[in-house]
């Protein structure tokens, strides 16, 4: 299992590094492109990390012009986070690259084996600890 995870992560990290991003930054950008206007707590839950870590991560992405935080009208304390066009462009193709990696890794399996593996992994994932609210 470790070897499979390593192989997938290594390929993903190579793709990410070519764009000058960390794993965490790319995950945040992918999430924000799919969920525009998310709040920091959403990102903390998705990444299973603290709100403070997310705030630091977003500051770095803001400095690069890849995300922006906007206050909610009537609620100056609530900020929504959006990927900028530059952020969306930078991360474009990530899902395609990761799908290609998965196809390479799963190539030895036929469709019934892939379905069985997916079901087993979903069962394991359902039992993993969830992040605690920060």
Describe, in short, the structure shown.
The protein has helices spanning 2-17, 23-34, 40-47, 51-63, 85-91, 94-106, 111-127, and strands at residues 67-72, 75-83. It is built from 7 helices and 2 strands.
Could you explain the architecture of this structure?
The protein is mainly alpha-helical and 134 residues long. The chain has a single domain (2-127), classed as Orthogonal Bundle (Arc Repressor Mutant, subunit A), CATH 1.10.10.10. The protein has helices spanning 2-17, 23-34, 40-47, 51-63, 85-91, 94-106, 111-127; strands spanning 67-72, 75-83. It has a two-stranded antiparallel ribbon with strand order 1-2. The chain is globular, with a radius of gyration of 17 Å. The mean pLDDT is 89.
The H-and-E topology, N to C, reads as HHHHEEHHH
Largest sheet: 2 strands, antiparallel
Span between termini: 30 Å
Structural class estimated from helices and strands: mainly alpha
Mean pLDDT comes to 89
Report the radius of gyration as a whole number of Å: 17 Å
DSSP strand (E) fraction?
5-15%
Q: Provide the CATH topology.
A: Arc Repressor Mutant, subunit A
Number of strands: 2
Number of helices: 7
CATH class designation: Mainly Alpha
Strand arrangement, major sheet? 1-2
Total individual domains: 1
Overall body shape: globular
| pLDDT < 50 stretches | none
Helix content: 55-70%
Instruction: Write the CATH architecture name.
Output: Orthogonal Bundle
Name of the CATH homologous superfamily: Winged helix-like DNA-binding domain superfamily/Winged helix DNA-binding domain
